Amino acid sequence: MAYPLSQAAKLELQTQLQQAVVACTERCLYHSAKWAAELLNSFPESEQDGQKLDSGLYMSDNTSNISLQSPPVNRNASASNLSPREAHLEERERHRYLLAQSFFNCKEFHRCAAVFLPKVIPNPTASSNTPSKAKKATKGKSQVGTGKNTTEQDTLSQKSLFLALYAKYMLGEKLRDEESEMILGPQDGGVAVNKELVGINQALEDWFRRHPDSSESQGWLEYLYGVVLAKGKNEADAKKWLIRSIHSYSYNWGAWQELANLIESADELTSIAEQLPKNLMTYIFHIYTCQELYIANDQIHQQLDQIQEYFPKNAFLKTQRALLWYHVKDFVRAETIFNSLLKTDPFRLDALDHYSNILFVMVRTPQLASLAQHASQTDRFRPETCVVVGNYYSLKSEHEKAVIYFRRALTLDRTFLSAWTLMGHEYTEMKNTHAAIESYRRAVDANRRDYRAWYGLGQTYELLEMYAYALWYYQRAAALRSHDPKMWHAVGSCFARVDRLPNAVRAYKRALAVGAFHEPGAAPGGPFGSELETGEAVDEGVGGGGGAWPQAAATVMDPDTLWQIAALYERMGEPEEAAAYMELTLAQEEGPDGGAEPEAADEEDAVAAPAPGGQGCGVTDTTSKARMWLARYEFARGGFARAMRLATELCQDGVEVEDAKALVRDIRARMERDKEDGGGGGSVDRKFGREMVA
Amino acid sequence: MSRYLTPSKVSVLALIWLYSTSWSPRAEYNGFELVSYYDILSFVISLIVPGASPTAPGWAALQLSDFERILRAGRRASWPGQNAWDVFLQKIWQDFTCLDDLHSFFKILPFDVFAPTAEERIQKELDHELNKRPKIRENPISRRNSPVGLFVRRACLEFTRLQFDDTIKLWESFVSYRAPTEAAVRKRHPELMSLNRADPLMLHSSLDGYLSHQTNVQEGASNEDVERLLEYQIEQLQKYGNRVPEEMKRQFQAMVSPGISVPSLSHFVNFFDAWRAGDYTSAFDNLHRYFDYTMSIRDKTYYQYALLHMAVLQADFGCFGEAYAAMQETIATARENQDMSCLNFSLSWLYHLSKAYPGQMKAAGYREVIGSEREGLEFLESKARDDKMWSLLSSTLLSQTKLRLSNGDSISQALEHLYESSHLNLHHELASVTGAQMLMLSSVLSRLGLSEPAKQQAMVLKVCHGRSSPVEENLRATCRLAYMAAQAGKYTRAMDLLDGMTPEVNRVLKFYQYLTTYSGILKLKQQLHHNNIVASSHLLSRLKAASPLDPELNLELALLEVDYLIRQQKLPTAFDLVEDLGVRLKDEGADVYQRIRVLSCKGKVFSRAGKPEMGFSVALRAANASLKARIMPAAWEAVGVLCNILVSLKEFAAAVKLLDGITPQALEGEDSMLCAELFATQADAHMGIAGNAESGTRERSRSLFEANRFLSRAMEWYERVEDLNGQLEMLAKQAIICRLRGDDTATSKKAAEYVHLHDRSIERMKEESGPDSSFTLLMPEKQKTTE
């Protein structure tokens, strides 16, 4: 499907990536540089002979309509293609630039900024306090009094200006972290702001005003502006500027990442994708964003397949693949990918926290311990390591220790999202609901797409019996994970709690619908592949060792949900509906293959599966409850034969034997009395009613 | 370094787990046989309870081979052909495959070892993981307060306190700890060795190259073990007053080096070591460092102990002013904190210091803290009795004895105190005081002139209590023995004794100085007897330069100097020296024995100077005082001087009478020089009687004969101490007697002997005075060979 890169295109791409690494390193954007360098080193080993000379590389699928073209070279991105003015400026500033760069590397941000901007940026607090004054300063840029700053900025190359402002930005971040002091301490309310933002914002505004011609721009300043705007919650503008930055220079992964963070839904993604240039980076961006948005369909997988043909060794792409599996709960595949990643690059700690989450869900304690050991020996003070260790302790139900490690992760990096969420889980376990809520809140503040945090918030409020709150949070979570029955189940239960029964029923039905989405009749090419079934199997936690579940088997509907719906209908006074759902619940014992006649189903499945009930869920508490309810319902309606059979089955299953026996006795008594005469139904009704209340 | 847990402790915990899970009240159902139960339990107890078994290897040295030795014996009834060792091996390989197993082990350990409490039973039912564990029956070690229970609980607690990285370290060291048994397990249970189990992520294949440096971490000792070792070292250091042997130091360093954190106690050990080595600055540095590091843990109550150590240290290096000031502060702080033991100890120490160095202490501004000396001692005694500080009481009693002796009070009272102290030592097993008490007894005996029992006491101390008493007492006993031997003229034996001291003594500066001075004094004595003036002057100047702090040695040296001056006929100088000495001793309130000796010496100088009249009263006083105080050796010496003066005053009969009375006793004293001089004086007296008698009378010839007899006896004793002058004098006198008798051949024979002896002594002197003789002479024999 994908065409191999031609030799020339490949060479060009490599040159581009090389230049990207150099450019990012020069600007001290280390993570972007790392990312580009990783990509640069993940071309296939065996050299192509270059017999296929197709550099067009159009995708076959027409939905995304993204072409895999290398971004245009002859923009002014690379160092060699500078405008003469910029080149001249850079040449003149080279020594100072080296000085500033080394200061930055030594984390002396003040000094670094001061190399180029001794006092350019007015005191941010002063300017924020007196906006009119600041406005005047920007307005009168050509005037003599305020001219000093602007002239100085004018004489700077874009590169130097970027570094200086970026240093300011980093300084602000550092100060903000320092101000917050201890994690969840009195100062750490998540309200501390980067105080340099205003100044940087102003400087950049000035600059852009004076250079309206975007053709001269290198893209980096736009990126920084986008970041600053995003921090200031000015998201629409931030997106605009980031897109501009990407248009000017595509190989800055940081810009893509920032952009991805700003996208909140799939619709937004498609609308933004139209504004983006069509090239390789956009392609990767698309995959990354989809992953972040939990969109895991065949299309994405195909795209990933294609891109991996060009970069078979790229760890980032493999990680994306693993995360995609993880989002659809195919833990086995995700685990395999992560394990192979770990083997090929044992000292890469990125995304190991996700790996540990997977192992946690799969309850692979030894593996998790081993991972923690390995990560800890590689680098003890990486947030990823701390999260892995925290997960391990959490799995060993040592929640205090887990919290210690999550806190450590957050001390190392306050924006480390998963640690906030996981810490919330731990606090919930420790019944420290206030801390849990705060942790979840911080997680949500850092990334509004984290459904686990929303769900956690909901759970915590549910614990506190504040159902209206919980409902709101569950709804947020359900909106983010609309294909996850667990979310809808939670929403339903909350609706039931606040007595909005029809809504509850709808939510439960939704849960049923998404849960039973992949029935055998579903279209094979549907958005959820057959892989999902194994994932679901693991999710159910029945076997624990995924994959054992037969692929072709139809998944049962969740009997719990069915029972809940039935109970709701009963509360709404619709016993017929309730009875129907009860029947459905009961039917889940045998699975969808089993007919209404359980005996027949047993005979059929006896060969295939050793467990009673075959592919159904078997006799559980819920189905027994449903059976009991049905037995009484039949009894009340006078269907003694069915009631008798159900009650006897209950006795056979050994659940609620006493009640069942009592019921059997009652039925016998009634049947005998009925034989004698036809009266006495009222007392039974009364009895039935009492028992149902109990 | 881990704080507490080590691989060996984990192994023992595994053994305890095995024990308690296989235990059953009926022996025949036990996993192990009863015999091995006993072995296992005693093995575990010997490790857990400190001091339970002296032969136990200790945590740091415990290897799996030690387990094998114990467990081989135990067979398991339900597993024919397998013994407990196999079961144990299987346990530590099967149940410890990866880090997670270690965590799980510690999590389930308390549930498996202890019989569950009621609430735990509920918890156990709730927790499905624990529910699968085997049921624990009530058994001897399943109680939480048994020693084993305490150990298990402590271990679990310590494991909980470990950081994750520390658990990794523990795990890795455990892996390398059990590695030696890998071959055995591979043979028996090959299924346990699959890599898959040990490395769930299968990382090793890709990490082979990287991880090699990480896997060979072997640390046998935890912080706790090291601290225990250090405590032991300090205990030994304080008990014996010696230094840490080099070998031990080396091993200890090897043990500590892998860890980063060194317990602060090691600074204390370093302090002791530097102190003993005479490294004043390092000692100070280390002491301050120790207290700086421990201040955070202990509060200010330990401040006085810091001061106490500081004072002792200062005094040891001769800084009495500082020592006194520090001790004053100690006393004040101890009073403030109501720390009776510290207060008593510092008071007693201050008393001892003022006794030992009266002049220096006075210069430092010392005044009696509590009334007079005796009152002070009585106060201390009652204090010690009240606080039941037996060791202090015993040493105070010894001080009482010493006080009585030095005041010349009644011997019986001194003996009473001595025996009281002895009783306390025996009753309370005060090994540290026993040596001092025996030394004191020995000196009492020698004062009474019973030199043989005195020697025996010293020998008993050296032979029987040498190992348990401080090095210093050993040294003193040896020196006393050597001194006695030298007095008897057995110089080689004396030197042998001094050389025979353990080399440990030489590693402590103070002891080394003492020993060197002592051997120097003995050598000086010998050289003086040899009349080797050159060597003597060298020795003397060296010894005086070293100026021994010990008052006894000081006196001995001064007396030898007087002897040296007399031999050189520098009598005025000698007289001045003796006079000064007398005044000084009186000022210091020194021991009566010392003062008597100085008096006798003064008398001797007078008689040598030909002024017997002036010496008479002095000698008489000396004799009187010594008899009163029952210091027999001093009495004999004083009487000898007195007789010498009597002879000079021509009171021959009186002299003979006195000497007749005293000589037999003196012979028992084994002081050869004294005996020789007594005999010589007696010969002189008889000679004088002969001179008074008419020539040719029977009395004259008899006296001459007596004189000659005593001369030859004196000659004998002089020969013993190799005293040249004495021998020559005796020979000359004999020759004169021979001539008086008219026996010319005998006369010439004696004359020839005289010449021969003289020549030989000169030859010997030449031999001895090799290059740099003065230096080598000072050193004990052994050092000479090693130089």
Structural class of chain B: mainly alpha
Number of alpha- plus pi-helical segments of chain B: 42
CATH homology group of the domain at 329-449 in chain A: Tetratricopeptide repeat domain
Strand content of chain A is: under 5%
Q: Please describe the biggest sheet of chain A, giving its number of strands, its sense, and whether it closes into a barrel.
A: none
- The quaternary structure here is heterodimer
CATH class of the domain at 329-449 in chain A equals Mainly Alpha
Question: Percent helix among the residues of chain B?
Answer: over 70%
| N- and C-termini, Cα separation of chain B | 43 Å
For this structure, the CATH topology of the domain at 329-449 in chain A is: Serine Threonine Protein Phosphatase 5, Tetratricopeptide repeat
Give the low-confidence spans of chain B.
208-216, 771-787
Distance between the termini of chain A: 64 Å
Estimate the mean pLDDT confidence of chain A.
75
Rg of chain A (C-alpha, Å) = 31 Å
Model regions low in confidence, pLDDT < 50 over at least 5 residues of chain A: 47-80, 121-148, 518-554, 594-614, 679-694
Total strand segments of chain B? 0
Organism (chain A): Viridothelium virens
Keywords (chain A): Cell cycle, Cell division, Mitosis, Repeat, TPR repeat, Ubl conjugation pathway
Region (Disordered) (chain A): 46-87, 123-152, 590-620, 673-694
Biased composition (Polar residues) (chain A): 60-83, 140-152
